[in-house]
Q: What sequence folds into this?
């Protein structure tokens, strides 16, 4: 008995999400705070100035929220119709927005009334951004045109009308004060230089463009439309680098993490995907309750704010880093070094190592298998906590019993409750590729042994006859006591009467 070798439980790859540094980083957000707005949230923009605040454009209002405030600390409501694209200037002192009545309005962040109103578009203005010189504004409208406005004089400087459909997204360069990008529902993305009268680059996105984004170096930019996120190389004349298709519905918003090494995309499929900008593979994702229209990240990724079609604003704050107190190392008792003496000693080539025998404690199923109680061992691994928590142990014991050639003996003579437990386990796990080869064989053995009992049910007879005499003991099927297996695959054992 001392030479018994315990059942080897094979290790299978763990199922589920792989824990990576990105997973740990993006999971460090608290339970979200939700704020109900008056309408669908179409634009979220964080102020570049401290303290952290952000502008939320919804319905006919632009609300300014503080970092932890659940009520707006300021509201701009001087709009006759729906407001669009409330955007901060680089110094955080001015805010510009478009609206449905074709006017671009400029606000002082500390005031209420509009400082400037720029009129010139003939339809709704959905795109507004500040040029990098801080004294000009670029706008895009449903009248297919893009315009440059002079802030001090309140006049139009130039106008571009090369798109053939609504201009619904755009952004201005932060490095070049004359460069801006627009995206349109005519499936094209155009790059303009204010020193020229025409666009300098045109890219075909092949779907209505919902969002464009320039990388910090501005050598690359990203466009989103349809289910596609496409990356373009500005330095190669707008050549397509790659096309990503990880969403199931239209991608509506793009943004970059504070480090610029992660790209985030939000979609109507209620998901936010996070890509590594090294290989553009998805490293993490968030799920939300409704379709997402806009997404924004605060500096240092302290907050992630999402606006949805149902008018709900979802805010997640990052948990603070856990600071461990400077604890003094606990003092060890003088006897401690006696017990650990020689623990780290590495034996040399000529040393003779005397090891203390270690007593192995066998598990319940191993003790039963050592005593050749295969039926009881199978019962032990069919307990609920074992078969549901660690099904690989149940399968390994079945495999060991099959290897011994006693699988039919272990399965025979089961009552209705025991047989139901076996069948439940088989039905649940036989589809697992890890367990299928063994469990299919077990299922065949069960059918062979109990076919005479279940045949009447399969044939749809009006009544089920009594089980054969050698299967009965009261109202249950009795266990085998001894015997063998016949040529037809049925047990020919002697059963208790």
A:
């Amino acid at each position: 008995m001392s030479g018994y070798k315990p059942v080897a439980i094979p290790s299978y790859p763990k199922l589920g999400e792989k824990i990576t540094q990105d997973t740990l980083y993006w999971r460090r957000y608290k339970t979200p705070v939700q704020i109900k707005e008056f309408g669908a949230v179409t634009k979220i923009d964080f102020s570049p100035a401290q303290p952290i605040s952000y502008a939320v454009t919804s319905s006919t209002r632009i609300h300014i929220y503080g970092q932890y405030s659940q009520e707006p600390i300021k509201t701009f409501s001087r709009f006759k119709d729906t407001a669009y694209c409330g955007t901060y200037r680089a110094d955080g002192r001015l805010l510009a927005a478009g609206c449905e009545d074709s006017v671009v309005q400029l606000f002082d962040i500390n005031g209420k009334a509009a400082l400037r109103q720029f009129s010139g578009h003939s339809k709704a203005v959905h795109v507004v951004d500040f040029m990098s010189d801080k004294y000009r504004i670029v706008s895009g409208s449903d009248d297919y045109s893009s315009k440059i406005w002079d802030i001090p004089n309140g006049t139009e400087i130039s106008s571009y009308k090369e798109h053939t459909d609504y201009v619904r997204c755009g952004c201005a360069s932060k490095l070049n004060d004359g460069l801006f990008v627009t995206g349109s529902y005519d499936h094209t993305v155009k790059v303009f230089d204010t020193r020229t009268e025409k666009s300098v680059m045109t890219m075909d996105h092949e779907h209505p463009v919902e969002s464009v984004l320039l990388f910090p170096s501005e050598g690359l930019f990203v466009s989103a439309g349809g289910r596609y996120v496409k990356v373009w190389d500005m330095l190669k004349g707008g050549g397509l680098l790659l096309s990503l298709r990880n969403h199931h519905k239209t991608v509506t918003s793009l943004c970059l993490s504070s480090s610029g090494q992660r790209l985030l995309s939000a979609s109507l499929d209620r998901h936010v995907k996070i890509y590594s900008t090294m290989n553009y593979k998805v490293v993490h994702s968030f799920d939300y309750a409704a379709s997402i229209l806009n997404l924004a990240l605060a500096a240092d990724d302290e907050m992630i704010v999402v606006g949805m079609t149902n008018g709900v604003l979802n805010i997640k704050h990052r948990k603070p880093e856990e600071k461990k107190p400077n604890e003094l190392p606990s003092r060890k008792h003088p006897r401690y070094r006696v017990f650990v003496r020689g623990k780290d000693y590495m034996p040399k080539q000529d040393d003779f190592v005397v090891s203390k025998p270690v007593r192995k404690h066998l598990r319940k199923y191993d003790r039963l298998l050592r005593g050749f109680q295969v039926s009881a061992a199978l019962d032990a691994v069919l307990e609920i906590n074992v078969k549901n928590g660690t099904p690989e142990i149940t399968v390994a014991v079945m495999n060991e019993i099959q290897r011994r050639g006693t699988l039919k003996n272990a399965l025979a003579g089961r009552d209705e409750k025991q047989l139901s437990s076996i069948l439940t386990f088989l039905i649940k796990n036989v589809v697992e590729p890890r367990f299928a080869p063994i469990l299919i064989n077990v299922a065949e053995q069960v059918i062979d042994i109990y076919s005479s009992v279940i045949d009447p049910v399969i044939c749809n007879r009006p009544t089920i006859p009594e089980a054969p005499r050698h299967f009965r003991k009261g109202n249950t099927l009795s266990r085998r006591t001894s015997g063998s297996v016949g040529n037809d695959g049925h047990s020919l054992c002697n059963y208790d009467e």
